[in-house]
Amino acid sequence: MTTTASPTATPTPFVDxxxxxxxxxVPDVPLRAAAAERLLRRAASxxxxxxxxxxxxxxxxxxxxxxxxxxxxxxDFLHRVGESGLIGFGESYQAGxxxxxxxxxxxxxxATAPETLVxxxxxxxxxxxxxxPPDEELSTAANARRNVGRHYDLSNELFAxxxxxxxxxxxxxxxxxxxxxxxxxxxxxxxxxLLATHDGLPAAQHRKIDRLLDLARVGPxxxxxxxxxxxxxxxxxxxxxxxxxxxxxxxxxxxxxARQRIAAAGQTDRAEVRLCDYRAAxxxxxxxxxxxxxxAVGRPFWPDYFATLDRVLAPGGRVALQAITxxxxxxxxxxxxxxxxxxxxFPGGLVPSVRAIxxxxxxxxxxxxxxxxxxxPHYAETLRLWRERFTERSPQVAALGFDEVFRRxxxxxxxxxxxxxxTGYLDLHQLLLTRDEDRP
Length: 440
Prior knowledge:
Layout: E1 2-3, H1 21-24, H2 30-47, E2 50-53, E3 57-58, E4 68-71, H3 74-94, E5 98-99, H4 103-111, H5 144-152, H6 156-162, E6 176-178, E7 188-189, E8 192-194, H7 201-215, E9 223-227, H8 233-240, E10 244-249, H9 252-264, E11 271-275, E12 285-291, H10 302-312, E13 313-325, H11 328-334, H12 340-344, H13 354-364, E14 367-374, H14 376-392, H15 394-399, H16 404-423, E15 427-435
Parallel strand pairs: 2-4, 9-10, 9-12, 10-11, 12-13
Antiparallel strand pairs: 1-3, 2-3, 4-5, 6-8, 7-8, 13-15, 14-15
C-alpha cells in the first residue's frame, strides 16, 4: 500500500431495512470477498483506477487523472460484491460503501470491454453469484402494470424535477456544431460535436419526435397508434399535425397527466390516451410509433409485441420505433441475468439488439426492418443533462419524500446509463418496419 492525502469522508446514509432490506443487510462471505478483492485489484490494474481506502491509503499506485473509486467501507463493499456481483456493487453504492468524484468516468472505465475484467478461467464462477430474473417480474399481461408502476408511477413531480418542460423521458436529438473547441462534457462526433444544453433540450426533444413521426409519415388524417404514452408529448405533436392519435400506457400517473396536457392544448378531439396493455390494442392504424418501450417488453414476449404491431397496422402502414439497443452477443449473454438495473429500476425488461428485432419481426410477422438510424451519443448527452439536474435538485427530491438511498440509486442509474452510451455498450436506434407487399 502507498499513502496519499485522506479524502473527505461522505456521511453514510440511513438505510431503512423495511424499505431497502437487501441494502441494509451486509453479507458475511469471506471466501467470496477474497475473490472480489482479487477482481478489484485486476480491475484497478487493467483500467488504471485509483482505489482509495480509509486513512489515506491506496490499493495500488495509480496514474495522474485516473478514475477514482473511493471506498468508505471496504469490508462491506467486498462482501456485497462477493455475494452478488454487480447487484452487490450497486447496493454498496446505495448504502454509501463507496463514492467517486466523477461517477461517470469511473463507470465508463469499468464498462469498457467488461468481459475482460474476469479472467477466462474464472468465468465459470459466475453461476455461484449470477441470479436469474424472478418469475414474478416477467412482463406477462398480469405483471406488466406492476412492473411499469414501480418506475413510472413513482411521482410525476419527481420526473418534472429533472426532465425538460416537454416531459420527454427518452433520448433527445441535438444539433451539431464544429468540433473545434467543444464545451466540456459534450460528446464528440467525427468532425462535429453535439450542442447539448439544458436550454436547448426541449427543441432537441421535438427534433427527436418529429424525426420519428416523419419516419412513420404521420400527417393530416393519419390514424396513429402510440405504444407507451409517456407524459403525452408525442401524442400532442402528432395531433398538431392533424393526426388522430390513440396512445396506450400502463402508468396511471402518466395517464392522468397526459390527459391533462392534451386537454389543456385543446387536442382532445384528436388525441386519446388509454390505460391498456399493448397486447390488448384494438383498431387499425396507418402508422404505429413507440419510443423506448420495447426495452420493457422482455425477450419471451417479443413475438407478441411484433405480432401486435402487425395485427393493428393497416395495408401500406409504417411502424417507427425508437429503441435502446446493445450488441447482439452482449444481449444474448445478459438475457437471463438478473441485474441491478432490473432489480431496482426497470423490472422485467431486456435491451434488445437490432439483429434480435429484425429476426423476431421476420420470424413472427410480415414486418421487415427497412431502415435503422443510430444516435447513441445523443443519449449520452441527454443523460448527462438529466443527471446534472437531478443532482442539483436533490433537496427537492428529498422534499418529495424520497430518501438518500433512493437518491443514490437514481444517481447511479443515470450515471451507469450514460457510461453505457459513452462506451458503446448501449446504443440508440430509430427503426422503420414495413411489409414486403406494401413496398413500391
